[in-house]
Specification:
The structure holds 2 protein chains of 2 kinds. Chain A is mostly beta strands. Helix content of chain A is 0%, strand content 52%. Chain A contains no helices and 11 strands. In chain A, strands 2, 4, 5, 6, 9, 10 and 11 form a 7-stranded mixed beta sheet that branches. In chain A, strand 4 and strand 5 form a beta hairpin. Chain A is globular, with a radius of gyration of 13 Å. Chain B is mainly β. Helix content of chain B is 0%, strand content 44%. Chain B contains no helices and 11 strands. In chain B, strand 5 and strand 6 form a beta hairpin. In chain B, 33% of the residues are buried. The chains are: A mainly beta, B mainly beta. Chains A and B meet through strand 4, strand 5 and strand 9 of A and strand 6 and strand 10 of B.
Chain lengths: 112, 108
């Protein structure tokens, strides 16, 4: 029972490089989310997808794009990485009627 | 705007002592509040929801609408309670707004 799977777990990028963070869930959840976690800032919502085929901006969307590829997968793309995007990124999912989230294990991204 | 405030970044108590992690919120509607916990090298997991009025691992949290608070309490702390704790508020479309987090350390 995998739950929410994120890849990669660690990544180092140079400023200006691009990359995609992958997230997949096997719980048939409708909603998926991307958060970033920074010391003293808690978790801040980057983008979310309330259901397959829809995506919406969260609190800190600048510099990111997302794709809800199907019900299972929700990817986060950094087109031109900046040092300010150094963070731990968490993907999460939830059902429509249960507002508890299931989180992935996180991706630790460093931009140098 | 919806906001969750956890005033303590760090909290340290001795084993067996009572623990209270503070959480205050601002929300114009009827709030739905949660506590999440992240143990060392583990993923974030749901600890409890106010709507369930449950006790998990000895923790309880009562929603106080008058004081707009949802403090997490445990009468006798255990070493395995050391973790990062996040208070969260449901903010429409199933989105959660998280507080800044409190790192709880239980000293032996």
């Amino acid at each position: 029972n995998a739950g929410v799977t994120q890849t990669p777990k660690f990544q180092v990028l140079k400023t200006g490089q691009s990359m995609t963070l992958q997230c997949a869930q096997d719980m048939n959840h409708n909603s998926m989310y991307w958060y970033r976690q920074d010391p003293g800032m808690g978790l801040r919502l980057i983008y979310y997808s309330a259901s397959e085929g829809t995506t919406d901006k969260g609190e800190v969307p600048n510099g990111y794009n997302v794709s809800r590829l199907n019900k299972r997968e929700f990817s986060l793309r950094l087109e031109s990485a900046a040092p300010s995007q150094t963070s731990v990124y968490f993907c999460a999912s939830s059902t429509r009627h249960n507002y508890g989230y299931t989180f992935g294990s996180g991706t630790r991204l460093t931009v140098v | 705007a919806q906001r969750v405030t956890q005033p303590e970044k760090l909290l340290s108590v001795f084993k067996g002592a009572p623990v209270e992690l503070k959480c205050n919120y601002s929300y114009s509607g009827s709030p739905e509040l949660f506590w999440y916990v992240q143990y060392s090298r583990q993923r974030l997991q749901l600890l409890l929801r106010h709507i369930s009025r449950e006790s998990i691992k000895g923790f309880t949290a009562d929603l106080n609408k008058g004081e707009t608070s949802f403090h997490l309490k445990k009468p006798f702390a255990q070493e395995e309670d050391s973790a990062m704790y996040y208070c969260a508020l449901r903010s429409g479309a199933q989105k959660l707004v998280f507080g800044q987090g409190t790192r709880l350390t239980i000293n032996p």
